[in-house]
Design goal:
The complex is a heterodimer. Chain A has helices at about 20, 30-35, 50-65, 90-95, 115-125, 215-235, 255-265, 275, 285-295; strands at about 5-10, 15, 40, 75, 105-110, 135-140, 160-165, 175-180, 190, 210, 245-250, 305-310, 315-320. Chain A is an alpha/beta fold. Chain A folds into 2 domains: about 5-170, Thiolase/Chalcone synthase (Peroxisomal Thiolase, Chain A, domain 1), CATH 3.40.47.10; about 175-320, 3-Layer(aba) Sandwich (Peroxisomal Thiolase, Chain A, domain 1), CATH 3.40.47. In chain A, α3 crosses α4. Chain B starts with a helix and ends with a helix. By secondary structure, chain B is an all-alpha fold. Helix content of chain B is about 60%, strand content about 0%. Classes of the chains: A alpha/beta, B mainly alpha. The interface of A and B includes residues 34, 213, 218, 219 and 258 of A.
Chain lengths: ~325, ~80
């Protein structure tokens, strides 16, 4: 019951190349590129997650001449907020100066699937007529939770934010799908605050860094992308030839190459920009979508599938018309 | 049968010619598989032979012979 009427993005200025990383850890441009498709990533030197969120939101608002006072729902998807409280969404609301009568703002945690979950939630709020126009931003500063001595993870990620605005005037979301499965073995793990109090709970030292079981996540990702694409196509009675572009979460070129072979979908149907940004978690689909809008000549009626997969485990997709 | 299918999958997934693969071929040293490619061939074996290959077993599957022995033992 809604339409994506705007996209926007922001990434910090500093682009760190694989060659730059060679200088601080034992890795190489060739090793990173052949395994991931990544050449560089943007890294925040001083900007907070809120700063990235704000700049991506402003980019979407200004490019598309959106009157900010029409926004009544703000959802920020992040696993790297500046604060547990207040939420990034509430701080974004204040920074944008959206202070009319009723605004609902909250953060969600669906890791790299965050934007898909956010769009699905917003579309349902709008469909129930409680809200009219939603700003959804996926934003991360992963650089602060990376172990920069672990070459298996720190080369993979980057910082950034991607935004979309949904409006209830038109109905262009054709199908939405989310799914999850508890990752009890913590194949993708980012620890929070350990329990510590004067009543017996002794502080346990826990890592503050992201850890990943790469091979298990690779397997999961190929399953999740296929499952997500199959679901929305079937639901709409469409086949892959009806789809102009697939915008997957930008984790790794090799995952997409695998899915392309398994599903017999031409590789160029998947829009990829992981080469320039690395994996920006919840930000990646929004950044890629904004790049797609800027670089491809999309036509009204073009069907696009957004696909997310990541920590939780979570996965899902949105099939919509441009 | 397992042997032929294993070799076929390796050739396809790793992009090498069938006649380059023998029982002693080492996935990473001889056939040029990197760590992700190993995951990809394991996934292909799981699909083809309908077996689950847990990660702790993957590390031991370094040659073609290892893989064939492993899959045959799983199928018994």
């Amino acid at each position: 019951m809604s339409k994506i009427i705007a996209t926007g993005k922001y990434a910090p200025q500093l682009a760190v190349s694989n060659l730059d990383l060679e200088k601080i850890i034992d890795t190489s441009d060739d090793w990173i590129y052949t395994r991931t498709g990544i050449r560089k990533r943007r890294i925040s030197q001083s900007e907070s997650t809120l700063d990235l969120t704000y700049k991506a939101a402003l980019n979407a608002i200004e490019k598309n001449n959106i009157d900010i006072d029409t926004i009544d729902l703000i959802i920020v998807a992040t696993v790297t907020p500046d604060h547990f409280m207040p939420s990034t969404a509430c701080l974004l609301q204040s920074k944008l100066g959206i202070d009319h009568m009723q605004v609902t703002s909250f953060d969600i945690n669906a890791a790299c699937t965050g934007l898909i979950y956010g769009i699905q939630i917003a579309d349902k709020f709008i469909s129930s007529h409680s809200h009219k126009r939603a700003l959804i931003v996926g934003a991360e500063t992963f650089s602060k939770v990376l172990d920069w001595e672990d070459r298996g993870t720190c080369v993979l990620f980057g910082d950034g934010a991607g935004a979309v605005i949904l409006d209830g005037e038109e109905d262009k979301i054709l199908s939405d799908y989310t799914n999850s499965s508890g990752d009890k073995l913590l194949h993708l793990n980012l620890p929070a605050v350990p329990l510590e109090n004067p009543f017996g709970a002794e502080k346990k030292e826990i890592s503050r860094y992201l850890t990943m079981n790469g091979s298990e996540i690779f397997k999961f990702a190929t399953f999740a992308i296929k499952d997500s694409i199959d679901f929305v196509l079937k639901k709409c009675n469409l086949n892959i030839d009806d789809i102009a572009h697939i915008v997957p979460h930008q984790a790794n070129q090799r995952i997409i190459a695998k899915v392309s072979r398994v599903m017999k979908i031409p590789l160029d149907k998947f829009y990829m920009n992981v080469e320039h940004y690395g994996n920006t978690s919840a930000a990646s689909i929004g950044i890629a979508l904004d790049d797609l809008y800027e670089t491809k000549n999309l036509k009204s009626g073009d069907k696009i599938i957004l696909v997310g997969f990541g920590g939780g485990l979570t996965w899902g997709s949105i099939l919509y018309e441009y | 049968m397992v042997k032929e299918k294993v070799m076929e999958i390796l050739a396809e997934e790793l992009g090498v010619e069938l006649d380059q693969i023998n029982m002693n071929s080492h996935l990473q040293d001889d056939l040029g598989a990197d760590s992700l490619a190993v995951v990809e061939v394991i996934m292909a074996f799981e699909d083809e032979f309908d077996v689950k290959i847990p990660e702790e077993d993957t590390a031991q599957l370094t040659t073609v012979q290892d893989i064939i022995n492993y899959i045959e033992s799983k199928q018994e």
